[in-house]
Amino acid sequence: MGTRGRLIAIEGGEGVGKSTQAALLASAIGAEASREPGGSPIAERIRDLLLDRSLGVLAPRAELYLMLAARAEHLSSLIEPALAAGRHVVVDRFAGSTLAYQGYGRGLPVEEVRRACDLASGGRWPDLSVLLDMPRDVAKRRRAAQQAQLPGVSPDRIEAEEPEFHRRVNEGFREIAADDTEHWVVLDGSASASEVAAEVLGAVRARLGIGVSR
User: Fold this and answer.
1) Would you say the C-alpha torsion 203, 205, 208, 211 has a positive or negative sign?
2) How far is CA 151 from CA 19, 22, 139, 155, 168, in A?
3) pLDDT for position 212
4) Straight-line distance from the first to the last Cα atom of the chain, in angstroms, rounded to the nearest whole number
């Protein structure tokens, strides 16, 4: 049996550059790239529902279990087969985001959210989660610049939440990472994309021993 692949999550709040860094890392190490919620046809349909602003208010536990349903499908259809075949997977968000957004952000008991994540994923957690952290005002400016480049595209249901929600989420990420330094690394996301990418790749090499792809 060959060596199993590793699961790496790029985490953080809105506007910190997760999607860019996940794509760059996947390319650098020859990994499968995916995202959450989403990553498979069914999970992408659930993503559309979760992020639809026309839904208005969604009960926190309903949001949580929709997120976890998408994850269970994502794991079954893409992540687990790739890992079993020896391919690494880099995912833009995973369970850390669930703890931060539905736990700290929505106010659900964090340990309840953790147990639900564990059940939905069959115990699968990332081998390494990379938290891109930066001051909220910097992230807001970046997000505004991104949206200016996409005229007609409005913030989704979660992006559009009030600032206090996003403050709780960001604080949640920092606490989660501080409580599990074995599986988390925190990097400053304020530098240029290339500089952050070098830091991310360096952390992955140091922690997991994964080199550059052929």
Assistant:
1) positive
2) 19, 24, 19, 11, 29
3) 47
4) 22
- Integer Cα distance of 36 and 13 in angstroms: 13
Find the helix packing angle between 60-74 and 110-120, rounded to 10°.
Answer: 30
Give the per-residue pLDDT at 214: 42
CA nearest to 82, candidates 119, 122, 39, 45: 39
Q: What is the pLDDT of residue 145?
A: 74
Please say whether the beta carbons of 2 and 206 come within 8 A.
no
Q: pLDDT value at position 140?
A: 75
Task: Give the pTM.
Answer: 0.93
Binned average pLDDT, 10 residues per bin, the chain of 214 residues: 88 95 98 98 97 92 98 98 98 98 98 98 98 86 72 85 96 98 96 96 96 50
**Would you state the CATH architecture of domain 7-208?**
3-Layer(aba) Sandwich (3.40)
Peptide bond into 37 cis (omega under 30): yes
Which segments within the chain are labelled E, that is strand? 7-11, 32-35, 89-92, 128-133, 184-188
Q: Which residues, 6+ apart, have CB-to-CB distance to 143 below 8 Å?
A: 14, 15, 159
Total H helices, total E strands in the chain: 9, 5
d(CA 18, CA 8): 12
- Angle, nearest 10°, between helix axes 60-74 and 41-51? 160
**pLDDT value at position 2?**
62
